[in-house]
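The passage that follows is intended for readers who have already worked through the single-chain material. We present the inputs for a multi-component assembly, then the predicted structure in tokenized form, and finally a short commentary. You are encouraged to pause after the input and sketch how you expect the pieces to fit together before reading on.
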Amino acid sequence: MSVLDLRSLSKSFGGVHAVNAVSFAIRRGEFLAMIGPNGAGKSTCFNMINGQLAPDSGTILLEGKNIAGLAPRDIWRLGVGRTFQVAATFGSMTVVENVQMALISHAGEIYRLWRPAASLYRARALDLLAQVGMREAADRPSRALAYGDVKRIELAIALANEPRLLLMDEPTAGMGARERHELIQLVKKLVVERGISVLFTEHSMDVVFAYADRIVVLARGRLIADGDAAAIRANAQVREVYFGTGKTFAGAVS
Amino acid sequence: MTLNAFLFQALNGLSSASGLFLIAAGLSLIFGVTRIVNIAHGSLYMLGTYIAYSFATKIGGGLGFWGGIIATAIVVGMLGALIEFLLLRRIYRAPELFQLLATFALVLIINDAALYIWGPEDLLGPRAPGLRGAVEIFGRRLPSYDLFLIFVGPAVLLALYFALARTRFGRLVRAATQDREMVGALGVNQAILFTSVFALGAALAGLGGALQVAREPANLATDLIAIGDAFVVVVVGGMGSIAGAYLAAVIIAEVKALCIGIGVVHFGMFSVNFSKFTLVAEFLVMAVVLIARPYGLLGRPQAAVRSVAEPEDPIRPATPLLKALAAVVLALLLCLPLLAQNSPYLLILGIDVLIAVLFATSLHFIMGPGGMHSFGHSAYFGLGAYGAALLVKWLAAPMGVALIAAPIVALGGALLFGWFAVRLSGVYLAMLTLAFAQIVWAAVFQWEELTGGSNGVIGVWPPPPFDKASVYFLLALVLTVIGVLLLRRFLFAPFGYAMRAGRDSALRAEAIGIDVKRVHWLAFAVAGCVCGVAGGLFAFAKGSISPETISVGRSIDGLVMVLLGGIQTITGPIVGASVFATLQDMVMRQTEYWRALLGAIILFLVLAFPQGIVGAVAQLFGKRRKGQTP
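Having made your guess, compare it with the prediction:
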């Protein structure tokens, strides 16, 4: 069974069909990239899956349960982790406290008033930090970190609720080439170990074609292609939306 | 009420709307461009009335009156430019709350300046030359001056509209309202733009005040009343929208006028006097609008202000040094009744300081870690104080029961108001909390049968042995220490962390399963509850409680205390409250002009310690430590 199954999902803003009857599914353990030019509807699609937007129509099945229109926190409780395009952490907390916060919430203990939070789940938080290579930075304020490191912290936070599905919105935006590959390799390693499915949007094609198991392509709100790297490379329609038809060049030469 | 009477009241409302609009339009313009909520705007309005009075009486005649009104607008506009140039220019990059504090200091200073120049008596100006008569409309006589005022509002609205739409200055103002950083990046001289906008806003307020000279006496209490009204108008209309300000001014003035017009209505056995609901009505309108349209009727969501505030450090448990210091202070306080045997006054002051500490700490709880800048914390103080006092008055409850009831009553109020407040943020949240506090105040003030109205409740004395200052001091000390330690404990617990998580990044907090609104709502309730204890203690300490002790002034005092101590530290509010309460007491005994002195001190502190006292000390130590280990 698919972990996530989108069925003819649609959303309009005013008269603009940002996402128009999009359907695709993610299989267990799959590393699925969603790509498309600017304005293709990737972010809208993403925000409907994570609960920030409610779809106008269509269903989003998470292991068979429709989650369309649920609040982000409820979707998280069902086992969906996420990272943000512009990394967001709790700036007034240390790195390890950021992860502890997610663990405390996962355990349903955020309304506790007595035990100091700093003592709760610290060992597990440190373990998660070690897995993303940030153990040494545990007690530094999270706002003092370099951007690439913040992305790693986000990953640790996203793994805290043992998700079945991880949503990553442009995980490597704003990073250099080497950092980019390191981060994606890390993600890939962690999700393979845990059997987590990943849906990510990405602008750097090197990352997409090197790591994605499968790729879906959106353009102007519609799904135009769905397949592995070779199939997408060969797809004429995808070439067209990314590079144009090439006819203008043909005209100029003749 | 007959249809004619109804229409007549509606006309009356329109003429009040003009004055409201003028002050609100200036406030809105200034906020739009500079992002400063100018609390002193009501003071500029008040000055307008006083200055116009002087022109009208000293020069006299048509020139003194009509020329005086124009001259007043110019003078107040120039004063506004001066304020911007000397003070505000230094604090544009300071955290929002510091700007509020600085402009509040101006309120204090201007109020005492007016007291010094014009004295404490109400001053009624002459009637307008040329418009002394009245016109008969709907079977009643409407002063022609009021009729004239009806047209002033739309005239100014049109003039502003064309100035904003057609002139280069107007384009810059509109551009800066949308994105002032971008305007600066495009090479516009922001300093001149900001000064001129502030001058224009001040001139409008001055004009509004000056036009009242023939209608209402110049009065020293006008400043806070006017700013309260103006806040409501601006928030209802939408921050930064001039047309919204006019629409809101009309709605609010009409609602008030109609309340007065309806008067007493009998519903079978009950009779309700609507003219007593004017204060509540205005704020109810605001609450309803804000809940339905969080950015006001014609407002838009605020453009993201790129934050310039110093980010907050992670909280750490108290160091051994701090713990030792706290123990010493506590020991000293426990000995105070012995030490102060010869100066009982010290104990009275001590009780005041303790109540202030509890008040400020509870406010800081939602302001700092919660990021909710409440401008109406006096509501929960008032609910606690009146809850306790009324139990004593009507049910002859013993003090123990009353002191337990105080936080429960405050908790109820905080749960109700907080549910609405957490749906908003920033300036809008501040204004909504202010509105709720005004509703509590107005209810207490106008519900005479229950609360004694402006006389308050008297005879709330503690029974022996608490009637001795030393014993009551110890009681206050115990309750305050328990309250402060509890709040501190909560902050270090998961709940406090969740509060800060929601403040730091609501998006991220929701994405890890935290219901941010609910957490903040409960935090609001906890703070209100603890604040209620302070209110209960206050009632028994003074033996009485009156509406003025729970007015807007107390909310502002609380803000000053928190900011003085430094909002980013947990010990801040304790230090801030102690310093403020002591300072206020000392200054009040020194001079008749204690408000101005207090204002000057606040200005000095704001300019000298932008992180508050504790923040400044911490930063000093932090720097030194860094210096030692390069």
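Commentary: The beta strands of chain A are 2-13, 16-27, 31-35, 57-62, 65-66, 80-83, 165-169, 197-201, 214-219, 222-227. The first strand of chain A starts at residue 2 and ends at 13. How closely did your sketch match?
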